[in-house]
Amino acid sequence: MNSAEQTDVLVVGSGFGGAIAAYHLAAGGASVTVLERGPWLTAEDAEHDYKLGSSYTRGFDFTVGDGMSILGGNCVGGGSVVYFASMPRAPRFVFERRGSIGRRMWPAAVSRDTLEPWYDRVAEALPVTPQDWHDVTYAGGLWAAACDHAGRTANPLPVAIDTAACVNCNWMMAGCRFDAKRSLLLNYLPAAVAHGAVIRPLHEVQAISRTDGGGYRIRYHVIDDEDYRITTGSGAIDAKIVVLAAGAGATPVILQRSEAGLGPMPHAVGRYFSGNGERLNTAVVNEDRVAEVLGLSRGEGAPAYGANPIGRGPTVASWDRLDGSLPEYSRYSLEQLYFPPGLGTILAQAPDAGDGPTWFGRDKKRMLSRWNSWLTIFTMSEDDNEGVFGPPPATGNAMRISQQMLGRGNLRYEPTANTRHGWAASDAEVKDILERDGIARVRPWTNDVVGAYTVHPLASCRMGDDPATSALDDRNELRGHPGIFVTDGSAVPGALTVNPAMTIAAVAERAVPGIVRAARERGVAVRYGAPAPDGSTSGRRGVLPLIRT
């Protein structure tokens, strides 16, 4: 192909990293094109079923690797459309972590203090609001009561949810039919479009190469709307600036495949992947003991709990172990979580299976019959960044296995003793809390089927000060490739011990002034300083003193 379309800025992906960059650059006057490999789903498309072809399968990408599987968003708005909207800020100690490299992973320029104004920008834009105990679901209330009974503390989570509009249908992972969840479809993305940004769904970026004029050519395939294995077209777009935000499971693959056209990649591209130290335990609750020990009741003859599917995703977390004075790899959060039928019913192990099979068989069948009495607890801990991406597939980020959702990727993950220590410690604490006085029986999900698993992939093209262990500098620019920036979860250096969406978004907000500066140096007439998508300006005032000129 000798000719291509032209745009000032090409953004790959429309999740937090892509949507935030697209909005600010379009609002600043640049021509912006966003390529998103998934479909454009609206509230009307959010279906309350798990059938093939529903929003539940259309909006997800589940990639099975060697020792680690990744579940992520695959639609306009990315993970924000299918996430549970929990938006805590990362603990202060996270930014001082040394991890497997024996030195501070985060750039010296980034700390909790320096990131705080960017967190504020995100909180204003979505917005993010605290919950109180009146907002907590049955499952969250049970977890809080069990923590209190065991001498632990628990806290309602801050969320990007309009709780007044939420109907507690608990279908958040299929998209929100009621627009109560403040996904990027309600703020950054429509604001970007209003300023002229063009969003193209079902466009999967394959590779990037250099142009004779010093810019970049981005090659893409057009994906069939129903069968993601089918390509219906292809094309190329030339841009002066490229913002990669395809997710930590796809961004490194695009860069690996682009090496032939761009030249050598930094060593850290596709290395140091983190699954955010994630782990899941499922408890089968004893309804009688919940009533007797915890004093909980739903009234009217209903079981004391028996409400696993009622409400919404996580509403309560225990943060007792988020203590910076504790040794690294022993800090984690424990979050109540509703995981809908699918992986949850497959990977949950029967607590009383004894020496027999634990995730299938008669004991598992009996466990499934009591699914209304399940309580799932989600651990986010400190891992060792041990994931490595192998050679990229011929196209896309994975070899597509099924019509939608399922693929086989090139990630290899062998958990170290440090990572396993964090998992074991959190498993033991969940067991201590929930099995105390016979409240429940609990067991972690199996790793035998798809290895470990994460819904929050991070760090596969991470930022840092050391060129040997980071792919990006402290402005999110790809080392050795000026004008290419990475703003998704792959830029975050390591596990955060909490839900990462808020931090990914804050890091993306922080990167935008540097992207604007690079665009101006390449002749793009763009400025920085747009308000929040709804016109609010308090967050803008907070960050202006931090912007390098």
From TrEMBL:
Residues 65-272 form the Glucose-methanol-choline oxidoreductase N-terminal domain. Residues 8-41 form the FAD dependent oxidoreductase domain. Residues 453-508 form the Glucose-methanol-choline oxidoreductase C-terminal domain. Residues 530-549 are annotated as: Disordered. Keywords: Cholesterol metabolism, FAD, Flavoprotein, Isomerase, Lipid metabolism, Oxidoreductase, Steroid metabolism, Sterol metabolism. GO terms for biological process: cholesterol metabolic process. Pfam families: DAO, GMC_oxred_C, GMC_oxred_N. Its cofactor is FAD. GO terms for molecular function: cholesterol oxidase activity; flavin adenine dinucleotide binding; steroid Delta-isomerase activity. Its EC number is 1.1.3.6, 5.3.3.1. Pathway: Steroid metabolism; cholesterol degradation. PANTHER family: CHOLESTEROL OXIDASE, FAD-DEPENDENT OXIDOREDUCTASE 2 FAD BINDING DOMAIN-CONTAINING PROTEIN. Belongs to the GMC oxidoreductase family. This is Cholesterol oxidase. It comes from Streptomyces globosus. The lineage of its organism: Bacteria, Bacillati, Actinomycetota, Actinomycetes, Kitasatosporales.
